[in-house]
Write a structure and sequence with these properties.
By secondary structure, this protein is an alpha+beta fold. The chain has one domain: Alpha-Beta Plaits (2-Layer Sandwich), CATH 3.30.70. Strands 2-3-1-4 form a four-stranded antiparallel β-sheet. α2 runs antiparallel to α4. The longest helix is centred in the first third of the chain and has 22 residues. It is globular and about 40 Å long.
Length: 131
C-alpha cells in the first residue's frame, strides 16, 4: 500500500469513529451537568486533615472558572447505607468541555495530591439533569 492510500485509510477510519461517537451524543445539551463526588476517609484521617480537604475543595470554585456552583455536606441519612462515605460534594458545569477543563486543571490536580494520603475511597457520578 502506498503512502497516500495509508493516509486516506487512516482518515476514513478516524472519520467513521468520530461519526459513530457523535451519533451517540446529543446534538446540544441544555441545563446543568452535575458532578457528584463522595469521599470515604481513612480511619487514620484527623478532623484537621478532613477540614483542610473540605476547605481546599471549596476553594477550587475560586480558582477554576468553569465551576458554576459548589455545595457540600456530610451524610445525615438515617438509612445507614453510606458504606463509609461521609462527605458529599456537588458541582455543576455548563458543558462536558467545562467539566473536562476542571478535571485537568492544575488546582484540581493539587487538590488530589492533598486528598490522596487520607482518602480510603471515592465515588464520582456525573449526570445531565433531566426533568
Amino acid at each position: 500500500m502506498n503512502m497516500k492510500m495509508g493516509v486516506l485509510l487512516v482518515a476514513l477510519v478516524g472519520g467513521a469513529a468520530l461519526c459513530a461517537m457523535a451519533a451517540d451524543a446529543p446534538a446540544h445539551r441544555t441545563g446543568k451537568l452535575f458532578h457528584v463526588v463522595s469521599f470515604k476517609f481513612k480511619e487514620s484521617a484527623s478532623q484537621e486533615q478532613i477540614k483542610q480537604v473540605t476547605d481546599a475543595f471549596r476553594d477550587l470554585k475560586k480558582k477554576i472558572k468553569e465551576i458554576r456552583t459548589y455545595e457540600w455536606g456530610t451524610n445525615v441519612s438515617p438509612e445507614k447505607r453510606n458504606k463509609g462515605f461521609t462527605h458529599a460534594f456537588v458541582l455543576t458545569f455548563k458543558s462536558d468541555q467545562a467539566r473536562d477543563a476542571y478535571l485537568v486543571h492544575p488546582a484540581h490536580k493539587a487538590f488530589g495530591a492533598l486528598l490522596g494520603p487520607i482518602l480510603d475511597d471515592v465515588l464520582v457520578i456525573d449526570f445531565w439533569a433531566e426533568k
